[in-house]
Amino acid sequence: MGLGAAELCARNPRLIYCSLSGYGQDGPYRDVKAYDLLIQGEAGIIATTGYPDKPAKVGLPIIDLASSMYAAVGIVLALYQREKTGTGQVIDISMFDSAVAWLGYFPHHYWHQGEEPERVGMRHHYVTPYGPYVAGDGVYVNLAVATAGDWDIFCRDVIERPDLLVDARFNTSEARRKNRAALEELIEKIFLERPHQEWLGRLRASRLPYGEVKGIAEVLAHPQVIARRMIRDMESPVGRVPVIASPLRLSNSPSRLDRIPALGEDTVAILGEIGYTDGDIERLRQDHVI
Questions:
Q1: pLDDT class for 236, splitting at 50, 70, 90?
Q2: How confident is the model at residue 150 (pLDDT cuts 50, 70, 90)?
Q3: How far apart are CA 70 and CA 20, in angstroms?
Q4: Rounded mean pLDDT of 55-67?
Q5: Which SS3 state, helix, strand or coil, does residue 142 take?
Q6: Catalytic residue among 108, 109, 124, 222
Q7: In this prediction, what percent of the chain has a pLDDT beyond 70?
Q8: Strand stretches in the chain, DSSP E
Q9: Active site includes 108?
Q10: How high is the pLDDT of residue 1?
């Protein structure tokens, strides 16, 4: 079609051309079809997510989100570079590359310790106790005991078990990880002894990191969501509709929430802006291009 990067960039050297594909523009998987869930599998996300006896996908389409964010950042960087050089460039974003880049510390544990990460459900792979625990009234309480100081406070002030501080199975981070099964079973039993509000109160008083496990309805009614105005109304062809606002907060460049246009509403105006005449646009319409 003559719309490839080489042809278009030759016609306009200032052009910034962004390609977002499953596996990138080269390599043996170049032409393999891809969707979010397929890349989650190929890039190791599924194998490291879920429970020991059953892997799981991540609930959100994280590969779509990650690769599109890399594409946006790449375009911004290319625009900044063009301001300095006067020329554009081709951006090659791969969903697979984006997922591999998000593997975090897993590759390093494999390179340096030969470890394939086990699946740990709602727990942290390398820190324990860390994650949601069911309280006596059936509600999850989420917490993080990330440091030696946190462990001391957790044992003394939250669960009131200072004896665990001198238990050789649990007195270091490495020991707690090694004896994870015994520790998790113990913490789970302790949390069943009291309702979630009492645990939240103790965690709040201790100043340890903590939270709750909320459903979507609870999130949309979250006091922080309301305070930060993360839900806005936008005008659309069907009336006002609620949307999630941008998380980008720039002090001198507030985000705009203009009216959502109908499908094709701005086509003629945009084509006119880039140089198409009324005759050109009419021919496109007759050929069912628009």
A1: very high
A2: very high
A3: 9
A4: 97
A5: strand
A6: 124
A7: 100
A8: 17-21, 50-51, 54-55, 90-94, 130-134, 140-144, 210-212, 231-234, 241-244
A9: no
A10: 65
The pLDDT of 69-86, averaged and rounded, is 98
The first and second tokens of residue 252, run together, are 């001198």
| Cα gap 118→109, rounded to integer Å | 12
pLDDT > 70? residue 4? yes
Place of tokens 């390179």: 111
Q: How far apart are CA 192 and CA 139, in angstroms?
A: 10
Return the CATH superfamily for domain 130-213. Answer: formyl-coa transferase, domain 3 (3.30.1540.10)
- Specify which residues 211 forms β-bridges with: 142
Give the separation between CA 216 and CA 285, rounded to whole angstroms.
Answer: 43
3: pLDDT confidence band, cut at 50, 70 and 90? confident
Q: Using alpha carbons, select from 15, 12, 3, 16 the residue that is nearest to residue 76.
A: 16
Give the amino acid at 140.
Y
Q: Share the mean pLDDT of the chain.
A: 96
Q: What is the DSSP letter of 120?
A: -
30 secondary structure, DSSP code: T
Q: Which amino acid is at 94?
A: S
CA atoms of 276 and 258, how far apart (whole Å): 25
Span 126-142, average pLDDT? 97
Q: Is 274 helix (H, G, I), strand (E, B) or coil?
A: coil
Please give the Cα distance from 7 to 18 (Å, whole number).
14
pTM for the model stands at 0.88
Q: What is the mean pLDDT of residues 212-220?
A: 97
3-state secondary structure of 101: helix
Domain covering 5-113 in this structure, CATH number: 3.40.50.10540
CA distance 169 to 61: 39
- In CATH terms, are 5-113 and 130-213 the same topology? no
- Token readout for 140 is 């999850």
Domain chopping of the chain, boundaries: 5-113, 130-213, 214-258, 260-290
Q: Please identify which residue in the block is written with the tokens 């069911």.
A: 134
